[in-house]
Amino acid sequence: MLAKRIIPCLDVKDGQTVKGTNFVDLRQAGDPVELGRAYSQQGADELVFLDITASHEGRKTFATMVERVAATLSIPFTVGGGINELGDVDRMLSAGADKVSINSAALRRPELIDEIARHYGSQVCVTAIDARQEQDGQWQCYINGGRIPVGRSLFDWAHEAQERGAGEILFTSMNHDGVKTGFANEALAQLADRLTIPVIASGGAGQKEHFRDAFRLGHADAALAASVFHFGEIGIQELKQYLKQENINVRL
Length: 252
Description:
Mean pLDDT: 94
Number of helices: 11
CATH superfamily: Aldolase class I
Number of strands: 12
Strand content: 25-35%
Helix content: 25-40%
CATH topology: TIM Barrel
Shape: globular
Distance between the termini: 15 Å
Structural class: alpha/beta
Number of domains: 1
CATH architecture: Alpha-Beta Barrel
Order of helices and strands: EEEHEHHEHEHHEEEHEHEHEHH
Radius of gyration: 16 Å
Low-confidence stretches: none
CATH class: Alpha Beta
């Protein structure tokens, strides 16, 4: 069985790492370059860098910042935010990214997934989905950093993304984001059941047990978190040792 991955996430705004709750109330969490270097040294399996206002502001992700972070890393590096066309993918890969994460642009123009998969291979294309469980119990996808609902079901869209050539799905539960009460394990399990590509759990990590549950109950292939790592609440090695004791296969 493949090892489960632990992935810190740098949400970057105006050159600083930030973290919010339910996608709002952002607070600063430090320099992305220093955080990236630290996570690489601490044994994170991958790093995700998201320019969280690029799509909303209608601009490209800053390649110079991506270059500076990539220069410190010895682990796979995924970059997202404002990636709308193959030229943007080229810029990010040239700046040192191993994969790109597309979200709003893919929902607006799903053919972008096909194009990236065809040109670079599915392994380069991470389709990120921000979804909220509405009052009727249905999971709806949102774009522009969780600002605009698009009337697409999480499960239908994830399946379409897979069929178009996405290599992974990064699912963030907007209901759970920053709340630290655990991941959306029921929705994760449904995704894992319907898909054959890896699913990355995002939104809700607050304790080591939450990661265990994402793997055991949600059948996630990887778990992504931000504030618990940025603010020193959980150490990467401490987390991996715990998961190992819980008989979850991780790379120490």
